[in-house]
UniProtKB/TrEMBL annotation:
Disordered, as annotated region: 419-446
Keywords of the record: Heme, Iron, Metal-binding
Name used for this protein in its record: Indoleamine 2,3-dioxygenase
GO biological process: 'de novo' NAD+ biosynthetic process from L-tryptophan; L-tryptophan catabolic process to kynurenine
KW Iron (keyword) present: yes
Organism: Serpula lacrymans var. lacrymans (strain S7.3)
UniProt keyword annotation of Transmembrane present: no
Length: 466
């Protein structure tokens, strides 16, 4: 694997271009020559995967200091949710004063940001944090109007990044981390990570984000195994099949560890606090409890800008790593018969919220002319067993995700409805079957996640009959 470690950036091209030591792969037999394609097209690092290899910038240059200052003020003031029960007049006044400051901020030029992807990412992060705080510090009966000081630069930056003008997984996880203490290790230790910005400033919120960060870092080995497997698939001989079988056994162990990391979020994040005090901050328009339309003001002066239509909030469904596993194993192309909602297409919608380089990565991965699932279907029994074990590990990962959703969203929601029913004298409680709970991605959580889990389980390949 030394040739893999020496690469500065991991990309699907390198999946195709790094030969097995005993095989020289050329352009014959339909193998594409991808050696001239730029690795940076995919922005995937050998050490950190879909996270950047170094901590993202924690502050923009002075030209955009007004944004940073407004965000810093909001975080230091510890603004409260507008829908918080028992919010005091003083807390409401602080929020109102801060929102007035946002409205008075000048519309800053984003032109010079276009020269730096890192600065564009930081700008998107800062602006969506400000926007979400501007929206969610207001009471639930207030019309949502985002002032031009935020809406215009956010739409411009979002256009450059080809991202929605709303908080995404990349804003809260991928580009929102730093090291607790300096380290010379090129691979960040998963317990040496911290978040840069937090709506609540609490460890509960940080641990929620870091669970995903740790999964991303641990998942780098899965990406390496995908690369090695794809090298072998271009050969396709008996040695290749044995090696792929070994790689799949290793991948199963990695996915099992990802499941354990996901479940470990319970150690640092309280479900009730998360549901009532953290989650509302990053909800998008799709999951707005009052179903309000988000109006971006000032667009009439900027005809090149379009009213945004994708306004879901950050979601684990936006993790490119998990989508990569689905594509690599061929799960995303399995039959959706008897699945009128086509849950895989809902997952694919979440790709709109990924950094554009990572979307390109998935498209390139999907274009592999020799998919793993087809090789497995040829019938080698040990390969089949290893493949099914990996698919089952992904299924168990999704089982764990359902458990976390039950603990952190469905359970607290039911308790809240029970309290509402008791205080109002209602005789019944409406649960998620009668009134579907929406995820920050705007989906019916329970039904959606169980459907994807079940489709994953159905993707196992039955052995051929003798």
């Amino acid at each position: 694997m030394d040739e893999f470690v020496q690469l500065e950036t991991l990309s699907p091209q390198h999946f195709l271009s790094l030969p097995r030591p005993d095989i020289i792969i050329g352009t014959a037999d339909g193998v594409p020559d991808t050696s001239t394609l730029a690795a940076h097209d995919f922005d995937v690092d050998t050490r950190t995967g879909f996270m950047p290899p170094d901590p993202p910038p924690s502050r923009l240059p002075l030209e955009w200091e007004p944004w940073e200052a407004v965000l810093e003020d909001a975080l230091k003031t510890k603004l409260q949710l507008g829908g918080k029960p028992g919010i005091t007049p003083e807390e409401a006044a602080l929020s109102s004063s801060w929102r007035a400051r946002v409205r008075e901020t000048p519309i800053l030029s984003t032109l010079d940001l276009t020269n730096s992807e890192l600065l564009l990412r930081r700008a998107h992060h800062v602006l969506v944090f400000i926007m979400h705080m501007y929206i969610h510090t207001q009471s639930l009966d207030t019309e949502i109007r985002i002032p031009p000081s935020i809406s215009i630069p956010l739409l411009q930056v979002s256009s450059q990044l080809q991202l929605p003008a709303v908080g995404t997984y990349s804003d809260t996880v991928l580009y929102n981390w730093d090291l607790k203490s300096p380290s010379s290790d090129p691979i960040p230790a998963i317990h040496n990570l911290r978040s840069q910005d937090l709506f609540t400033g609490t460890n509960d919120e940080q641990e929620f984000y870091l669970a995903s960060s740790r999964i991303e870092i641990r998942g780098v080995e899965a990406l390496e195994l995908m690369r090695a497997t794809m090298d072998e698939m271009f050969v396709g001989d008996d040695i290749a099949v044995r090696r792929i079988t070994s790689f799949l056994h290793k991948m199963t162990k990695v996915v099992d560890e990802l499941k354990d990391i996901l479940l470990a979020v319970r150690d640092g994040c309280d479900p009730e606090f998360f549901y009532h005090s953290v989650r509302p901050w990053f909800c998008g328009a799709d999951s707005d409890p009052a179903k309000r339309k988000w109006v971006f003001e000032g667009l009439e002066e900027y005809p090149e800008l379009q009213e945004p239509t994708e306004l879901s909030g950050p979601s684990a469904g936006q993790s490119t790593l998990i989508h990569s596993l689905d594509i690599f194993l061929g799960l995303d192309n399995c039959s959706t018969q008897n699945d009128p909602d086509d849950r895989w297409s809902l997952l694919r919608r979440m790709q709109n919220y990924m950094p554009r380089h990572h979307r390109n990565f998935l498209r390139h991965l999907s274009s592999n002319p020799r998919p793993l699932r087809s090789l497995v279907a040829e019938g080698d029994p040990k390969l089949l067993e290893a493949y099914n074990a990996t698919v089952n590990a992904v299924k168990e990962f999704r089982d764990a995700h359902i458990r976390i959703v039950a603990i952190y969203i469905i359970g607290p929601s039911r308790k809240a409805k029970a309290r509402e029913a008791e205080s109002s004298g209602s005789e019944s409680i409406v649960d998620e079957n009668g009134r579907p709970l929406k995820g920050t991605g705007g989906t019916n959580l329970s039904q959606f996640l169980k459907g994807v889990r079940d489709k994953t389980a159905e993707a196992m390949i039955l052995p051929r009959l003798a």
